[in-house]
Amino acid sequence: MAATATRTPARGKAGAASDLHLAVLQKHPIFGEIGADRVRQLCAFATLRKVSAGDTIFIKGDPGTALFAVRKGSVKIAVPAIDGREAVFNVLREGEIFGEIALLDGRARTADAVALTSCELMVIDRRDFLAFVHSEPKVAMRLIELLCARLRFASEHMEEMFFLDVPTRLARALLRLAEREAERPSGDRVAITQQEISRIVGISRETVNKLLRKWAKGGLVKLERGAVTVLNPAKINGLAGQETTVTSR
Q: Check: CATH 2.60.120.10 for 6-159?
C-alpha cells in the first residue's frame, strides 16, 4: 500500500503555501491562461502532501481520487512486473501534474507513482477538480491536449523500444530528460540514477553504465552520483538520429 504522507491544509493561516500553489499552477499550460483569480479559487481546494524519497504516492489499481502537482522534487510514473522489474514511463518534476487519467474517468490508477526525491505535492480532490473543470471549458480542452501529448509520447516510446538499437534509445532518453531540465537552474544536469535510466530505456543497468562511461570518456556527458549532465548535445543528437534541440551551457 502507499506510504502514509503528511498533509497540510493550504488555506487559513497557510496563505503563504496557497501562494506557492498558485505560482506552480500558473506556470502550467493547463492553468496559465485562465487568470490568477480563477486559479486561486482552485488553490483553495488544494492540500500540501510531503513525501520522502522512495515513498509510494499511489499504486496501480488504487482509486483515482485526486490530482497531483509537483511543487518540489521529482516523481516517477512506472508499472511493475511480477518478476520485480519495472517500466518507467515518465519522470515528473516541479510544475508538472500527474494522476489525471484516473481522476477524469473515475477508474483505477494505471501505474505507480513513487517519489524519486523528497517531494512537496499539491493534492486536489477529484470532486473539487471536476466541479472546477465544468466551470472552465478552457481547462477541459487543455486536459485533452495534455492527454493527447502523453498518448503520443507513449506511442513514440513503444516504437523506440521495438525498432531502435540500444545506444539510440539511450541517447534519445537523455535528450528528453535534459531538455526538460534546460530551463531550470541545474541546466542540463539530470538528477536521475543509472538504474532509473535503465528502466526508462528498457535495458540493463550494466549496459547503461558501459555506454555512459564510454560517452563520458569522449566528453559527451559528465557522470556524477545520482546524476548525468549532457556536455555535448550535438553529438548526443547525432547518436539519437535527431537534429540538435538542446544547447550546451
A: yes
Are the beta carbons of 232 and 219 closer than 8 angstroms? yes
Domain(s) of CATH 1.10.10.10: residues in the chain:
164-240
Task: Please give the CATH topology (third level) of the domain spanning 164-240.
Answer: Arc Repressor Mutant, subunit A (1.10.10)
Please state the separation of Cα 139 from the chain's center in Å: 20
pLDDT at 184: 58
Question: What is the pTM (predicted TM-score) of this model?
Answer: 0.74
Give the pLDDT band (50/70/90) at residue 18.
low
pLDDT at residue 59 is higher than 60: yes
